[in-house]
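REQUEST
  id: r-88c1
  op: predict_structure
  target: Aminotransferase class III-fold pyridoxal phosphate-dependent enzyme
  payload:
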Amino acid sequence: MERVRAARAVLRRAGHDLALLAVDTIFSSAGILTPTDAFMLGLQEEARAAGGLFLADEVQAGFGRGGRNLWRFQDFGLTPDFVTLGKPMGNGHPVAALVTRREIAEAFVEVDEYFSTFGGNPVSCVAALTVLDVIEQTGLVERCGQVGAELRAGLQELVPEVRGQGLMVGVELPDAGGFAERLREHGVLVGTTGPSGGVLKIRPPLIWESAEVGRFLSAFRNALR
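RESPONSE
  id: r-88c1
  status: 200
  body:
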């Protein structure tokens, strides 16, 4: 909270104030950190106390990846003014969206004109709706929670620092970049994240099952040797 207040103080000294606070619902670029409910609710309260709006970024953590709800902001009990969606929204098809309340959208068009060359493309909309149908029909959110728990439990038997939720998992290692290269040699591709790139970013497809977890853990063990 102190950093938000400090940033607001800087804005006010320049004659402005906080207009919007945008927050990722899992801190992926910071090393796959999972904030507490109290922290996230506090951020929302700080934004609104300043007269600003609150945006929940679900581009990476949304569509059930957290394994509890379709959207991560639901896990915290947040009521965002905006939600940003993208990447998994079309399962490979390029599509993204900004979701907001009707009164905000209506207020926006009263003061400005919005135009998008590709906005509302019917093919993209069908792709996005189909993704939502498949997630619901196949129970992917629940499966993501179960498979993610299995993956984290297996990793915790091999290394001490494992964190995350659902199928968004971080593993902190002394040489994460080098280890990612060794994993690649065993047929597994992962990225790195965190301020110094010291965390493996494990974000597999939501269709993973126990068999894929087993193959991943086998490759992980081999890369540790």
